[in-house]
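Dear H.,

Thanks for agreeing to be a second pair of eyes. The structure we're designing against is below in token form, covering all 179 positions.
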């Protein structure tokens, strides 16, 4: 080893600039999932698989159930607040705050307020957006709530999520106290 840092690689001209305008761009995917709406701002195909960036609209009572996965996940709360449970301890993250969830750590979040919350979610490496696209429902805008699921549709959603989760290095965990 020479002890010298490697030179910066040349610019990859096959990659393009990505600009996301979630309130204007009708081509961005808006995914209804667990009552929330997730807009894929920057997908893994835009970042050579390095990360994905997701705009999350979380209505009162919304948020994902307990889960864990083998990738890093960071949230910045843009509007409102969410109650975050991390390894069994709960904190409140408010507008302007950022939290990082280490890979493999059990966590969930809930909007326990009476107004919608908005978060930016960065997952590294990318792939979570593919899972969301496969299990969620397309909706028209970043704030449109997904339609309520019938009991049969809810059962199918849960089965599909449980079936696909391992392919995306995700484990869906039981709610606290249900064991």
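And this is the sequence the design step returned. I haven't edited it by hand at all.
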């Amino acid at each position: 080893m020479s002890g010298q840092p490697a030179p910066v690689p040349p610019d990859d001209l096959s990659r393009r600039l990505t600009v996301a305008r979630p309130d204007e761009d009708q081509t961005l995917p808006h995914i209804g999932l667990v009552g929330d709406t997730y807009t894929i701002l920057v997908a893994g195909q835009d970042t050579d698989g390095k990360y994905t960036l997701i705009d999350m609209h979380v209505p009162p009572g919304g948020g994902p159930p307990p889960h864990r996965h083998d990738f890093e996940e960071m949230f910045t709360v843009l509007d409102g607040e969410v109650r975050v449970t991390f390894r069994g301890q709960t904190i409140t993250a408010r507008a302007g705050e950022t939290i990082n969830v280490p890979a493999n750590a059990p966590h969930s979040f809930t909007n326990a307020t009476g107004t919608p919350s908005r978060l930016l979610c960065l997952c590294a490496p990318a792939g979570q957006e593919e899972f969301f696209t496969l299990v969620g429902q397309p909706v028209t805008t970043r704030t449109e709530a997904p339609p309520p699921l019938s009991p049969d549709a809810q059962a199918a959603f849960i089965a599909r999520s449980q079936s696909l989760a391992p392919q995306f290095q995700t484990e869906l965990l039981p709610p606290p106290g249900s064991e």
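Two observations from my side: The two ends are 53 Å apart (CA to CA). The chain has a mean pLDDT of 94.

Warmly,
E.
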